[in-house]
Design brief:
heterodimer; A: alpha/beta; globular; B: mainly alpha; 0% strand
Chain lengths: 259, 331
């Protein structure tokens, strides 16, 4: 009695897979057809640039008909690893100068296009009354930092050292977005993130400023890949990011001017 | 599926011959025996149980003879050998690449780096704990799903298997929403019992259990469905109670499925990354398991990451091969 049902559901699954395959093929065909008319610029960008660069990409496409921008957003280190292993890209934008240095001979001369700094992320309304970095040493607080292996964690470590604060974090997240998640879900009381993360989180987080003499200014560089397929478009995209319009988009998302 | 699983049961224990009625279902029972394609079969075959020390009087001939006798007439359908070879190459080539690219020179240094042993120890504790929890709660669940035709059984089964298709990171967020400090159940745990699970070793264990238990349940359920119930009936007519029948008859008969499901469950727990990082976080010594350590090492020091991965591979291989040779001392 159960077996016919099993066969029928197997058939259903098969139909579903076939339909899925069709859809995928259709999409692929569309992309191919489009590729003949418009060129595709591949931009590898740090995860913290997701919102800002998506908007930049739309504006760029509007200003340059015939060019579509596809993004690959990931941690800066991951991006460089992917490029080292031969991933095709035209432009690379990282969240720190160190990963750009690691990219080394793969890229042309990098240009600084934005800056970022740290803030303390707390629950909306700051229920724990956290006033700044020094409060993170309080024993009654659950504090989450990014791991020192990723840029945000390295910067947080530097800032805490400058402020002379020693923190016993409950977790060292593998990306700064993990810190944002833990604080916005209320699992942690505070975390050290970028000011742009606070801006992107909207009402889910409040940001407490960190004094400038303790804060760390992160520099975001971008560069064209040496072996890129669309050098002119890559150049145009970089110019657009550095243009007043591009800089305004970045500022809207909480980024600072390049230091 | 059923006939394959039945075959695993049959092979492993040298168990009872199949009932005639059971042959009607699968696409030619004999064929599926030859091809042995399913995951569970592979696992069940590799990690079949030991022959019972004292085989019950009704048990069939020893497994070795059955297998040897059968091997002679196993001829694969046309094309299966090259297809299988592609599968093997696809699955093993990345592992070979890890071995080829491994920085053997810096291996001792990478292995003794601070935190590596702690991560390894924690990985073993959490994965074995997850296996224990899965066995404790998953086997009764599998039995109920296989045996008791209650209303909504298919729905329950689908819900229980859902974590298998859920992206683990989403699973981690779901766990936070349920058992986090502000979670649906977690806020009561916090206020009534003073227990908070996120950022604790227990939390890491639970995250791994959430992701791994379905593998045990699905495998064991199939094993229970495939076994010959007449042995249980016989035990019952001889006066054995339900619990005694389960312990002395059912458990030995489903041992291959239990071993296969257990191995799958443990292996999944050992490699678990997404749900653990999301639910339990990452703190060396308390929640940083090997996969998390590997991921972080990958950020700055890919060589160290390869080394750590090799350690995990070696341990998994040692456990799986060890289990296998324990059950098949002759092979």
């Amino acid at each position: 009695m159960t077996r016919p049902t099993g066969r029928r559901s197997l058939a259903a699954v098969g139909t579903l897979l076939a339909a899925l395959a069709l859809v995928v093929c259709a999409c692929g065909a569309n992309a191919d057809a489009g590729g003949e008319r418009s060129r595709e610029l591949s931009v590898f960008a740090a995860a913290s640039l997701t919102d800002a660069f998506t908007q930049l990409g739309d504006r760029f496409t509007a200003a340059h008909p015939g060019v579509t921008v596809t993004f690959n957003f990931a941690g800066s280190n991951d991006l460089v690893t992917q490029l080292r292993q031969g991933a095709p890209a035209d432009v690379l934008a990282t969240a720190d100068t160190r990963s750009m240095e690691v990219a080394g001979d793969l890229v042309d001369e990098p240009l600084a296009f934005a800056g970022n700094k740290l803030a303390v992320a707390v629950a909306p309304g700051n229920p724990e009354g956290i006033g700044g970095l020094a409060d993170l040493a309080r024993a009654d607080l659950k504090v989450v930092l990014a791991a020192p292996e990723v840029p945000a964690g390295k910067y947080a470590e530097e800032a805490l050292a400058k402020a002379g604060v020693s923190v016993a974090p409950v977790s060292l997240e593998v990306s700064v977005k993990g810190v944002v998640t833990k604080v916005s879900l209320g699992e942690a009381d505070a975390g050290v993130v970028y000011v742009t993360d606070v801006a992107a989180a909207g009402e889910k987080l409040d940001g407490i400023a960190i004094a400038d003499d303790h804060n760390v200014l992160a520099t975001y560089p971008l560069a064209a890949l040496v072996a890129n397929a669309h050098p002119d478009d890559a150049r145009a995209f970089i110019d657009f990011v550095l243009s007043p319009e591009g800089q305004q988009v970045l500022a809207d998302h909480g980024f600072l001017p390049a230091p | 599926m059923n006939s394959r699983r039945r075959q695993a049961v049959e092979r492993g224990t040298g168990g009872p011959p199949l009932r005639d009625g059971d042959h009607t279902g699968g696409p030619a029972g004999g064929r599926s025996r030859e091809t042995a394609g399913g995951l569970a079969v592979v696992a069940g075959d590799a990690i079949a149980p030991p022959p019972r020390p004292e085989p019950p009087p009704w048990s069939a001939p020893a497994p070795a003879t059955t297998r040897a006798a059968r091997r002679g007439d196993e001829r694969a359908p046309l094309g299966f050998v090259p297809l299988a070879a592609v599968a093997v190459a696809f699955l093993t080539l990345p592992l070979v690449a890890l071995l080829v690219r491994a920085p053997w020179g810096s291996l001792p240094g990478d292995l003794t780096a601070p935190g590596v042993l702690a991560a390894l120890r924690l990985s073993l504790i959490c994965s074995v704990g997850a296996l224990g929890l899965s066995l404790l709660f998953g086997v009764p669940l599998a039995w109920l799903l296989a045996r008791v035709p209650f209303r909504g059984r298919n729905l329950v089964r689908a819900l229980v298997l859902l974590p298998m298709v859920l992206p683990p990171v989403v699973g981690g967020v779901a766990l936070l929403l349920a058992f986090g400090r502000n979670g649906i159940a977690g806020q009561w745990l916090d206020s009534l019992a003073g227990v908070t699970l996120p950022f604790t070793t227990l939390g890491a264990m639970l995250a791994e259990t959430f992701v791994a238990m379905p593998f045990l349940v699905i495998t064991v359920e199939a094993g229970i469905r495939a076994m010959d119930r007449r042995y249980e009936d016989a035990a019952a007519t001889l006066g054995a109670g339900r619990w005694r029948t389960f312990r002395l008859v059912t458990l030995p008969l489903i041992a291959p499925a239990l071993a296969a499901g257990g191995a799958l469950c443990w292996a999944r727990a050992l490699g678990e990354f997404g749900a653990t990082i999301t639910f339990a976080g990452n703190l060396p010594g308390s929640t940083q398991t090997m996969p998390l350590a590997v991921y972080l090492a990958l950020q700055n020091n890919p060589d160290a990451a390869i080394t750590l991965s090799l350690v995990m591979l070696a341990i998994s291989l040692a456990v799986l091969v060890g289990l296998r040779s324990h059950w098949f001392p002759s092979r």
